[in-house]
Amino acid sequence: MLRIAVPNKGSLSGPAAEMLHEAGYQQRRESKELRVVDPENEVEFFYLRPRDIAIYVASGRLDVGITGRDLLIDSGADAEEILPLGFARSTFRFAARPGTANGIEDLKGRTVATSYEGIVAGHLADSGIDASVVHLDGAVETAIQLGVAEVIADVVETGTSLRNAGLEVFGEPIMKSEAIVIRRTGADAEEGADPKVQQFLRRLQGVLVARTYVMMDYDCRVEQLEKAVALTPGLESPTVSPLHNEGWVAVRAMVPAKEAQRIMDDLYSIGARAILTTAIHACRL
């Protein structure tokens, strides 16, 4: 069986389970379950702490895992990203009291507190900055108030908690993170492309496509077909079928979901009618 690591809690857990369910895999019914076997799909899921997943995958005990890009890099584990999943997006940045620093060059000789020591130390080293890094497991905003550090490095979403602590972000983002699928580095080169891993990735890619696109159907006059097709080119090309009424055709194409309303407006303006959009629940490209 394919052995897959899944986050057992935190912001990665729920969306990961939802995506796996949409991909047709059986998921746990209770949060206390640590292992689920899906015999129909020949998959075994292990629910682990998100920070530990890269270590397990790098060891080769598990074939693939879902974790955050930030957690993979911070772990230093011998594993690599093989598919971004588009959820749990975040930005990692430096923050301090106003006037403390304007950029990373101002961190020389200073102390930085963070829960992601591996990321920060590596980023400082790559930038040629000699600064001290203090590891904290959480609530790094208080490190400055208590005098443990002059600067913090943390995940920033809205920045509200930083502002409430009297801090502001500065400099360029350290990194942008999201949920990813990982595998042991060089596994394909050593063992060859595993068909089970490839099937797993195709299923997840199908979910990503299904979430990104909708199916659009509409009728239009033949003389307006080229303009309509330019608005809805589809992935290869749209499907065009003649209607019973002469001079009309039915068109079907996949379009980006976020642009669907605009495309419907543009189609209507050139005379298309009976314009419908339908959600896509599964897809293979």
TrEMBL record:
<keyword id="KW-0808">Transferase</keyword>
<protein>
    <recommendedName>
        <fullName>ATP phosphoribosyltransferase</fullName>
        <ecNumber>2.4.2.17</ecNumber>
    </recommendedName>
</protein>
<keyword id="KW-0547">Nucleotide-binding</keyword>
<feature type="domain" description="Histidine biosynthesis HisG C-terminal">
    <location>
        <begin position="210"/>
        <end position="281"/>
    </location>
</feature>
<dbReference type="GO" id="GO:0000105">
    <property type="term" value="P:L-histidine biosynthetic process"/>
</dbReference>
<dbReference type="GO" id="GO:0005737">
    <property type="term" value="C:cytoplasm"/>
</dbReference>
<keyword id="KW-0028">Amino-acid biosynthesis</keyword>
<keyword id="KW-0460">Magnesium</keyword>
<keyword id="KW-0479">Metal-binding</keyword>
<keyword id="KW-0328">Glycosyltransferase</keyword>
<dbReference type="InterPro" id="IPR013820">
    <property type="entry name" value="ATP_PRibTrfase_cat"/>
</dbReference>
<keyword id="KW-0368">Histidine biosynthesis</keyword>
<keyword id="KW-0067">ATP-binding</keyword>
<dbReference type="InterPro" id="IPR011322">
    <property type="entry name" value="N-reg_PII-like_a/b"/>
</dbReference>
<comment type="function">
    <text>Catalyzes the condensation of ATP and 5-phosphoribose 1-diphosphate to form N'-(5'-phosphoribosyl)-ATP (PR-ATP). Has a crucial role in the pathway because the rate of histidine biosynthesis seems to be controlled primarily by regulation of HisG enzymatic activity.</text>
</comment>
<feature type="domain" description="ATP phosphoribosyltransferase catalytic">
    <location>
        <begin position="49"/>
        <end position="206"/>
    </location>
</feature>
<dbReference type="InterPro" id="IPR015867">
    <property type="entry name" value="N-reg_PII/ATP_PRibTrfase_C"/>
</dbReference>
<comment type="pathway">
    <text>Amino-acid biosynthesis; L-histidine biosynthesis; L-histidine from 5-phospho-alpha-D-ribose 1-diphosphate: step 1/9.</text>
</comment>
<comment type="similarity">
    <text>Belongs to the ATP phosphoribosyltransferase family. Long subfamily.</text>
</comment>
<dbReference type="Pfam" id="PF08029">
    <property type="entry name" value="HisG_C"/>
</dbReference>
<dbReference type="InterPro" id="IPR020621">
    <property type="entry name" value="ATP-PRT_HisG_long"/>
</dbReference>
<dbReference type="Pfam" id="PF01634">
    <property type="entry name" value="HisG"/>
</dbReference>
<dbReference type="InterPro" id="IPR013115">
    <property type="entry name" value="HisG_C"/>
</dbReference>
<dbReference type="GO" id="GO:0005524">
    <property type="term" value="F:ATP binding"/>
</dbReference>
<keyword id="KW-0963">Cytoplasm</keyword>
<dbReference type="InterPro" id="IPR001348">
    <property type="entry name" value="ATP_PRibTrfase_HisG"/>
</dbReference>
<dbReference type="GO" id="GO:0000287">
    <property type="term" value="F:magnesium ion binding"/>
</dbReference>
<dbReference type="GO" id="GO:0003879">
    <property type="term" value="F:ATP phosphoribosyltransferase activity"/>
</dbReference>
